[in-house]
Design goal:
Length: 335
């Protein structure tokens, strides 16, 4: 009674339409349906269009029938293949050709491999900007944050957030300012007078400690390399001509390291043959020079963070005798 044959026999005896085999089931269904229509028990009606089943996206994309618009566009690196590439250069070639950190930076920042002297100059910028002691605002903030028990990233960010027009962030402005001045054809003396009349500071000029009698060796290193290796240095020469005039007023109104890096960098990218003038202007507008300062100085900030932990320095509190307290009573002036 549990067999399929017994069940089929019972259904036939009960009046079911049972095919002799499962393969004949469609034929049986069609026959029964046709008989019911002919007998008038079923009145056929027009059926609507079959709803369109949405195509599976993954399947369609695999077949190349559809494409999805990208949320991001990247043109500097690719990690999808068997080997990571930097602007088309495989990571193995990066090492086998020994392009160095300057070469990697040129690929990722400028999307092309610059000449060896240019990548060397980039590495020099990172080296001379790596640190300038614990007293500058960025290093100070990093040290204070480290001594407060914060982590490396927080301490580094604390220092980086001080970078701006007064500390390290004037490179792009200095580059644009001197490049425009040199390109305008105005004599250095006349340009200085113009800046003075418009009450504008000349970015990249002036140092708190260094002067003509006590030159900044970082400036000497950068200036010497540019003069020796670059095809031409018109912007640097213009800045040095400005320095000759400003130092007559005060000996410390020299071309500082920010200004020297800025004008030398402009000469480098303009004379290396890798960029058009428009591309050079874009690089200065994009902030790549300030980026070099941020990258270089991060080395020093991290060093100060590690130094404070190594020395096991306690929480920093500024001494009272180094603060001038000014208190005002209600309705009275300061005492």
């Amino acid at each position: 009674m549990e067999t399929a044959a017994a069940k089929n026999k019972a259904m036939k005896e009960a009046g079911f339409h049972v095919p002799d085999s499962f393969d004949l089931l469609p034929e049986m269904i069609n026959k029964v349906y046709t008989n019911l229509v002919e007998a008038g028990e079923i009145v056929e009606q027009h059926e609507g269009e079959t709803p369109q089943v949405p195509m599976d996206y993954t399947w369609a994309k695999k077949l190349g029938m559809v494409r999805k618009p990208a949320n991001f566009i990247s043109s500097i690196s690719d990690d999808r293949g068997e080997e990571l590439t930097y602007c088309g250069m495989s990571i193995s070639d990066v090492f086998s050709k020994e392009i160095g950190i300057g070469g990697v930076l040129s690929l990722l920042w400028f999307r092309r491999q610059l000449p060896a002297y240019a990548t060397k100059f980039i590495e020099m910028i990172l080296m001379v900007t790596a640190d300038h002691g614990p007293a500058v605002s960025g290093a100070h903030n990093t040290i204070v944050t480290a001594r407060a028990g914060k982590d490396l990233v927080s301490s580094l960010c604390s220092g980086l957030l001080t970078i701006g027009p007064r500390f390290g962030g004037a490179l792009d402005d200095a580059a644009r300012m001197f490049a425009d001045a040199q390109g305008s054809g105005v004599a250095p003396k006349d340009w200085i007078e113009k800046m003075k009349k418009s009450n504008q500071l000349i970015m990249g000029i002036g140092h708190r400690i260094k002067s003509l009698a006590n030159p900044d060796q970082r400036v000497e290193i950068i200036k010497g390399f540019a003069k020796k290796n670059f095809n031409s240095t018109p912007v640097l020469d213009y800045a040095l001509a400005v320095e000759q005039i400003t130092t007559r007023k005060r000996a410390n109104l020299i071309l500082n390291v920010d200004g020297c890096i800025a004008v030398s960098f402009v000469d480098m990218i303009r004379s290396c043959g890798a960029f058009s003038k428009e591309e050079c202007d874009d690089l200065m507008a994009f902030g790549c020079l300030n980026g070099l300062f941020v990258l270089g100085r991060s080395i020093g900030f991290i060093g100060h963070y590690l130094d404070q932990l190594r020395l096991k320095q306690p929480l920093y509190r500024h001494p009272w005798d180094d603060i001038t307290y000014i208190q005002e009573l209600a309705g009275q002036g300061p005492e």
